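Tokens as discussed.
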């Protein structure tokens, strides 16, 4: 598929303004890879960084390394396959009688899942110590204000739709938020589809492989939003795709699981194009502090490929500035500007290279 695609989420219902009767809990969060990271305590521990993840069905998760540090009692792990594409096999254990606290809000869990998240952390460029998931979301109404980086947590009985909010009906399917919508390829008519709404996904939109094939959306060069995975999550036949944080962060988003609705309020400020990358390379952070910026993949027919960059290359410096002095998100952000030229110092095995890279829009 080439050109642009329009995305809409169907079932928009205008609502009357009203005010919540009880003040919500307000909690600051950090954004990394378009994902909200919140501080959670485990049985009264020091705060740990969890992703608030609406794609985490089956209940919240503690990272295995975090559980070991806290000396939590664990069951014998059971090997389970997780993730998109080839995914990973991890040992999933449980730990009994856990209390998770987000500021003053607490949640008691008789048996909480524990599995390694070390494979996730390089993609975020920071340590991931857990996932706050479906079990937390089902008991609250949660507003994610991406612009202010503030989470507002309401008791369901006290929440009412704010002025200017647009309500979208949702279904909870196997613990996931699913909404009806459509996509409109350039020059074509809208195609109805069903989307998972997932705060734990960094991109704007991923269309699953069966849907992309059925609607002839995979062009000769492919599309960054159309998955070619034939196994894992992105190979599912239903729903048809995932809407992620790159789109969601343009709104104030309220997840109301108890009333099965999603509420969107446009963020203030100028409209911004959804350009996740203009280089064609996907970067990860490696090392104990994730400060080594390494190329995980390079797409064909992109500036990175044309410049001679390869998978496994480490970007040591950008225009003479050490890449390790930036957060991974900051480095990725440099390659989102059209027509930007960079001088990259690259380490490839024992060889040092200087490579010139000029970005451009890929869609």
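Sequence:
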């Amino acid at each position: 598929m080439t050109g642009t695609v329009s995305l809409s989420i169907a079932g928009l219902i205008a609502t009357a303004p009203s005010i919540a009767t009880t003040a919500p809990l307000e909690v600051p969060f950090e954004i990394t890879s378009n994902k909200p990271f919140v501080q959670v305590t485990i049985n009264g521990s020091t705060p740990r960084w969890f992703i608030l993840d609406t794609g985490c069905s089956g209940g919240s998760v503690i990272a295995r390394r975090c559980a070991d540090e806290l000396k939590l009692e664990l069951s014998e792990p059971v090997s389970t396959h997780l993730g998109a594409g080839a995914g990973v096999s991890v040992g999933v254990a449980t730990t009994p009688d856990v209390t998770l606290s987000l500021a003053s809000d607490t949640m008691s869990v008789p048996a909480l899942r524990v599995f390694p998240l070390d494979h996730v952390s390089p993609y975020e460029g920071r340590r991931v110590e857990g996932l706050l998931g479906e079990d937390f979301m089902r008991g609250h109404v949660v507003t994610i204000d991406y612009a202010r980086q503030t989470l507002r947590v309401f008791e369901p009985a006290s929440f009412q739709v704010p002025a200017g909010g647009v309500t979208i009906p949702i279904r909870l399917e196997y613990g996931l938020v699913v909404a009806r919508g459509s996509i409109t390829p350039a020059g074509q008519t809208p195609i109805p589809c069903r989307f998972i709404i997932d705060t734990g996904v960094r991109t704007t939109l991923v269309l699953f492989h069966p849907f992309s094939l059925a609607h002839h959306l995979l062009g000769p060069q492919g599309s960054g939003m159309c998955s070619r995975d034939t196994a894992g999550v992105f190979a599912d036949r239903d729903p048809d795709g995932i809407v992620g944080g790159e789109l969601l962060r343009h709104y104030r988003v309220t997840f109301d699981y108890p009333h099965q609705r999603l509420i969107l309020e446009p963020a203030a400020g100028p409209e911004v194009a959804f350009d996740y990358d203009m280089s064609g390379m996907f970067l990860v952070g490696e090392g104990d502090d994730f400060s080594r910026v390494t190329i995980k993949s390079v797409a064909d027919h992109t500036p990175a490929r044309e410049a001679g960059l390869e998978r496994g290359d480490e970007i040591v410096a950008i225009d003479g500035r050490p890449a390790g002095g930036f957060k991974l998100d900051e480095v990725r952000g440099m390659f989102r500007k059209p027509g930007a030229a960079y001088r990259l110092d690259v380490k490839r095995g024992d060889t040092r290279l200087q490579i010139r890279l000029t970005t451009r829009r890929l869609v």
